[in-house]
Amino acid sequence: MKMGYYGAEKTGVNAVNDDYPGIDTPQDLYIALQSIWCEFSCSPRLRPEWSKDNKSLGQCTITAFLAQDIFGGKVYGIPRGEGVYHCYNEVNGTIFDLASEQFGDEKLVYDCRYEQKREDQFSDAGKKERYEYLCSELHKYCG
Questions:
Q1: Is the separation of the CB atoms in 10 and 93 below 8 Å?
Q2: 74 phi and psi, to 5 degrees?
Q3: How far apart are CA 119 and CA 9, in angstroms?
Q4: Per-residue pLDDT, 53
Q5: Contact 34/5 with Cβ under 8 angstroms?
Q6: Whole-number Cα distances in Å, 48 to 1, 6, 37, 45, 94
Q7: pTM
Q8: pLDDT digits (tens, 9 = 90+) for 58-92
Q9: Domain ranges in the chain?
Protein backbone atom coordinates (compact mmCIF):
# COMPACT_ATOMS: atom_id res chain seq x y z
CA MET A 1 0.00 0.00 0.00
CA LYS A 2 1.24 3.46 -0.90
CA MET A 3 1.78 5.59 2.20
CA GLY A 4 0.54 8.93 0.91
CA TYR A 5 0.63 10.97 4.09
CA TYR A 6 3.14 13.66 5.09
CA GLY A 7 6.05 12.13 6.95
CA ALA A 8 5.47 8.58 5.70
CA GLU A 9 9.10 8.20 4.68
CA LYS A 10 10.33 9.02 8.18
CA THR A 11 10.98 6.18 10.58
CA GLY A 12 11.80 5.95 14.24
CA VAL A 13 8.37 6.66 15.72
CA ASN A 14 7.09 3.67 17.64
CA ALA A 15 4.13 2.94 19.90
CA VAL A 16 4.69 3.82 23.55
CA ASN A 17 2.09 1.31 24.74
CA ASP A 18 0.33 -1.82 23.54
CA ASP A 19 -3.21 -0.51 23.72
CA TYR A 20 -3.71 -1.37 20.03
CA PRO A 21 -1.91 -4.65 19.25
CA GLY A 22 -0.26 -4.58 15.83
CA ILE A 23 -0.20 -0.79 15.66
CA ASP A 24 3.51 -0.25 16.22
CA THR A 25 4.27 2.60 13.80
CA PRO A 26 2.40 5.48 12.15
CA GLN A 27 2.45 3.38 8.96
CA ASP A 28 0.53 0.62 10.77
CA LEU A 29 -2.02 3.16 12.01
CA TYR A 30 -2.40 4.68 8.55
CA ILE A 31 -3.13 1.25 7.05
CA ALA A 32 -5.74 0.58 9.75
CA LEU A 33 -7.37 3.97 9.24
CA GLN A 34 -7.95 3.21 5.57
CA SER A 35 -10.47 0.60 6.77
CA ILE A 36 -11.89 2.70 9.60
CA TRP A 37 -12.30 6.29 8.39
CA CYS A 38 -15.86 6.83 7.23
CA GLU A 39 -18.47 9.51 6.73
CA PHE A 40 -19.47 9.35 10.42
CA SER A 41 -15.90 9.97 11.63
CA CYS A 42 -15.59 12.95 9.25
CA SER A 43 -16.14 16.45 10.61
CA PRO A 44 -19.84 17.31 10.13
CA ARG A 45 -19.02 20.50 8.19
CA LEU A 46 -17.11 18.42 5.61
CA ARG A 47 -19.40 15.38 5.35
CA PRO A 48 -21.07 16.55 2.14
CA GLU A 49 -17.66 16.35 0.40
CA TRP A 50 -16.42 13.14 2.09
CA SER A 51 -15.95 10.13 -0.19
CA LYS A 52 -14.10 6.81 -0.28
CA ASP A 53 -11.73 8.53 -2.72
CA ASN A 54 -10.81 11.07 -0.03
CA LYS A 55 -11.12 9.11 3.22
CA SER A 56 -8.88 11.45 5.24
CA LEU A 57 -11.13 14.47 4.63
CA GLY A 58 -12.29 15.93 7.94
CA GLN A 59 -10.47 13.32 10.04
CA CYS A 60 -7.42 15.31 11.21
CA THR A 61 -8.19 16.23 14.82
CA ILE A 62 -9.54 12.91 16.00
CA THR A 63 -6.79 11.07 14.11
CA ALA A 64 -4.01 13.25 15.55
CA PHE A 65 -5.22 12.69 19.12
CA LEU A 66 -5.55 8.95 18.52
CA ALA A 67 -1.98 8.95 17.17
CA GLN A 68 -0.89 10.86 20.29
CA ASP A 69 -2.49 8.15 22.45
CA ILE A 70 -0.41 5.52 20.68
CA PHE A 71 2.89 7.30 19.96
CA GLY A 72 3.01 10.13 22.50
CA GLY A 73 4.31 13.52 21.44
CA LYS A 74 2.24 16.62 20.76
CA VAL A 75 -0.58 17.64 18.47
CA TYR A 76 -0.14 20.88 16.56
CA GLY A 77 -2.42 22.81 14.24
CA ILE A 78 -1.96 24.69 10.99
CA PRO A 79 -4.38 27.65 10.73
CA ARG A 80 -6.89 27.12 7.92
CA GLY A 81 -8.98 30.28 8.43
CA GLU A 82 -12.12 31.05 10.41
CA GLY A 83 -10.57 29.69 13.62
CA VAL A 84 -10.11 26.21 12.12
CA TYR A 85 -6.85 24.26 12.45
CA HIS A 86 -5.57 21.25 10.55
CA CYS A 87 -4.00 18.95 13.16
CA TYR A 88 -0.84 16.88 12.85
CA ASN A 89 1.61 15.08 15.15
CA GLU A 90 5.16 15.60 16.31
CA VAL A 91 6.99 12.91 18.26
CA ASN A 92 10.61 13.49 19.31
CA GLY A 93 11.16 15.96 16.46
CA THR A 94 9.52 13.76 13.81
CA ILE A 95 6.46 15.29 12.15
CA PHE A 96 3.77 13.18 10.53
CA ASP A 97 0.27 14.00 9.32
CA LEU A 98 -1.87 10.93 8.72
CA ALA A 99 -4.72 13.03 7.28
CA SER A 100 -2.66 15.17 4.88
CA GLU A 101 -3.88 13.43 1.71
CA GLN A 102 -7.15 15.33 1.92
CA PHE A 103 -5.34 18.40 0.57
CA GLY A 104 -4.17 16.76 -2.64
CA ASP A 105 -1.20 18.63 -4.12
CA GLU A 106 -1.44 21.55 -1.69
CA LYS A 107 1.77 21.83 0.31
CA LEU A 108 1.10 22.53 3.98
CA VAL A 109 3.63 24.36 6.14
CA TYR A 110 4.45 22.28 9.20
CA ASP A 111 6.61 24.80 11.02
CA CYS A 112 3.56 26.21 12.80
CA ARG A 113 3.63 25.69 16.53
CA TYR A 114 0.00 26.07 17.54
CA GLU A 115 -0.28 23.30 20.09
CA GLN A 116 -3.74 21.77 20.24
CA LYS A 117 -5.05 20.73 23.64
CA ARG A 118 -7.29 17.70 24.01
CA GLU A 119 -9.54 19.41 26.56
CA ASP A 120 -10.16 22.32 24.18
CA GLN A 121 -10.79 20.14 21.14
CA PHE A 122 -13.02 17.67 22.96
CA SER A 123 -15.14 20.34 24.62
CA ASP A 124 -17.14 19.81 21.40
CA ALA A 125 -19.20 16.73 22.34
CA GLY A 126 -19.61 15.70 18.70
CA LYS A 127 -15.86 15.73 18.11
CA LYS A 128 -15.29 13.68 21.26
CA GLU A 129 -17.92 11.20 20.12
CA ARG A 130 -16.19 10.84 16.72
CA TYR A 131 -12.83 10.32 18.48
CA GLU A 132 -14.32 7.63 20.73
CA TYR A 133 -15.83 5.97 17.67
CA LEU A 134 -12.42 5.95 15.96
CA CYS A 135 -10.80 4.43 19.07
CA SER A 136 -13.50 1.76 19.30
CA GLU A 137 -13.17 0.86 15.62
CA LEU A 138 -9.38 0.62 15.94
CA HIS A 139 -9.78 -1.77 18.90
CA LYS A 140 -12.06 -3.94 16.72
CA TYR A 141 -9.55 -3.77 13.85
CA CYS A 142 -6.77 -4.92 16.18
CA GLY A 143 -8.83 -7.91 17.29
A1: no
A2: -125, 160
A3: 31
A4: 95
A5: no
A6: 27, 25, 15, 8, 33
A7: 0.95
A8: 999 999 999 999 999 999 999 988 888 999 999 99
A9: 26-141
